Each structure stands twice: as structure tokens, then as C-alpha cells.
Amino acid sequence: METVSISKDALEFLKKLSANNNRDWFQEHKKEFKTHEKEVKDFYLTLMERMRLHDELDKFKMFRIYRDVRFSKDKTPYKTHYAGSFSRAGKALRGGYYARIKPGETFIATGFWDPNKEDLFRIRKELETNASEFRQVIGAKKLKGVWGDLTGDELKTAPKGFDKEHPDIDLIRKKQFIFVRNFTDKEVLSSDFLSKVDDSFQAIRPYFDLMSDILTTNLNGESLLR
């Protein structure tokens, strides 16, 4: 299967944009940006082809370079990174993938970063009932070796209706259930970067399988899918 790499020029463009984050400079260099944007999009689309060998994906989204500055104190008009996300297909498959490329700050992320209130409550009730399988999956040697520890925003105390003394309160109070893996610029520019990202996403599958099962059933194990 075809291998696509990220070029040094694509990273260097972001460095120059960071130092010249204004409309005049960007317009002068827009043609160069479009070249790099296409290169990075090709990388993402090739990655999607690889991922479809081990998961069912619905769609890919590459985020625009333009920042929404309406409610931000930072009024710089452009993002200084490339980013894309991949959605899993169908109601039965939960979780998502994200990849951001930025000089010195490249990372990939996966999991559940904005669960709706129904999903969040269902996850918490599952953990309240029995968190042993969840801990086993996130603590597995292969997954942990690639992704490290589960992360994400969390409450300072127990959510309403949950016991703050519960033995699994460290999990129950989470608002996000995500994993993040960082990459150096040297890794990003290497010929096997795409394979490393694909392997990382493949390693998260046991977690997605468990979470998909939780989020498509009730506490009695009965399917919620119609």
C-alpha cells in the first residue's frame, strides 16, 4: 500500500505562519499553503485507507486553517497547525480519532472528548456498577505501552447522584475519556510516521470495543439499538 510522508517544508511553513500570523502575509503565501495543505490531506486520506483495514470509518474531516476569533482574546486569524478527524461508521461503533500536526507539538488523540450527557451518565453508571473490565482494558500492556494513561477533563468531586467515597470515583468524575500520544518533529518527518499513527489507532481497538458495548446497551446488557 502507498506510503505518504509529511515534508519538512510543510512544517517550516507553519513556523513561518506562526511568526507572520496576519492576513497580508497569508495572502502573499496562500499558493504555498495550498500546496502543503494538499500534501497533508493526502497523508490523512492514505491513513484513512490503512485504518479501514482494521476499522469501519464513516468519514474524514480536515479542519480549516482559519480561526474563529469572535469569542477569543487571541485575534490571530490563522491556526498554526494542520488537523483532521476520523469518524467511525454506524450507531454501534463509538469513539473517534484525531491527528494534529504542528512543529514541536504534534499529537494524535482518540476516545471520547465530548460525550453527550446521556452517554456520559451511561459510562458513569457502568463504572459505578463494576469498573474492573474497564480498568483491565485501559491497563493492558499493549494499549498502555502505546498510549500511556487515560486522560481528559474531570470534576473536582463526585458528579451529582454519585458517592464521592466510591472506590472508582477517580474514573466516575471524568468528563472526558481520551488517550493522547505525542510525536517529535523527527518522528513526524520519518518515513514510517504514517505506520506509527495507524498502529497506534489500531492498538486502541479493545477500548473502543468495550465502550461501544457499554454505550449501545443498558445496565442489564440489553441492546439499545433499533
Automatic annotation (TrEMBL):
Pfam families, per the entry: DUF2461 (PF09365)
Question: Per its UniProt record, what InterPro entries does this chain match?
Answer: CHP02453 (IPR012808), UCP028451 (IPR015996)
Top-rank taxon of the source lineage equals Bacteria
According to the UniProt entry, the coiled-coil residues are none
**What is this protein's name?**
DUF2461 domain-containing protein
